[in-house]
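[stage:ingest] chain + small molecule (nicotinamide-adenine-dinucleotide)
[stage:ingest] validated
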Amino acid sequence: MRVAVIGLGRMGWPIAGHLAGGEHGHEVKVFDISAEATAAWAGEHAGEAAASVADAVSGADVIVSSLPADKEMRVVVDEALAHVAEGAIWIDHSTISASGARQFADELADRRAHFLDAPVSGGVDGARNGSLTVMVGGDEDAFARIESSMAAYAGRVTHMGPSGAGQITKMTNQICVVGVAQALAEGLDFAINAGLDPERVVHVMTQGSSTSWEMENRAAQMIAGEYDFGFSTTLMRKDVGLVLDEASAMNVSLPVTAMVAQFLADVHALGGADWDWCSLMERQRRLSAPDG
Ligand code: NAD
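[stage:predict] done
[stage:export] tokens:
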């Protein structure tokens, strides 16, 4: 199968690698707006560097994108549209708005091609070790044709409904995770201020009712104050912004999500735009010990 991969960032790079490597071994052509990244990827993998979006998608059976946000997707779809083959399936792993996903699906349908919104959960580690969770919206037959190819980098791939349903599922995931992370920051800070050994506290709690993915995967870094990795505050602010826009359009009340959105803005103001967003802990710490 000929696969074009657009966007070779923290997620797209390893996803393209899985598609090109191992038993999957598709014919992969990659493009990133950074010519350096495109050349570096092609230098390290059994795949080809494309000179442009148009070059990458021409003749591709499948197009995979992993771009920051709606704005970049708009640019790439505009460049790609005239070159997408009839019957091609576009799998977009970017986290974007549901309305954007529906719009792209309509535009691809006009070209007799398919667009599946397929945001992911599992982070950079999940992309590297091929265990991402993928939530897919769009045409069910197109999904059935392409589902198995995502096994190259995903542990769980689920069709959620029509176009936009993948993005709405990802928003639900983010709603459920932001409050948990803030609660973890508060709990750890409370234990530290009370003089407990926070690592022992976490050891106990991961066996109890308060355990979570955040606790198992982020508590150690939050205790150590190490945020130079992972999913940035900027990307999480973008995701939470998408959630709040969607909730406002639906008249759904999300008070905790709205509050954590403010806290993430505080982290940004502290200089944490590029820190992993578990740096909510840094904000919490500084508030508890302003002189510390
Ligand atoms: P990233 O910023 O590391 O990568 C994005 C890539 O897109 C960059 O390499 C950039 O050069 C490229 N790009 C930007 N504009 C382009 C254009 N016009 N043409 C071609 N390439 C272009 O971001 P990421 O962390 O890989 O995230 C990608 C998407 O996945 C985002 O929507 C993010 O919200 C989502 N996501 C990320 C994570 C994570 O842990 N990083 C987890 C889940 C979902």
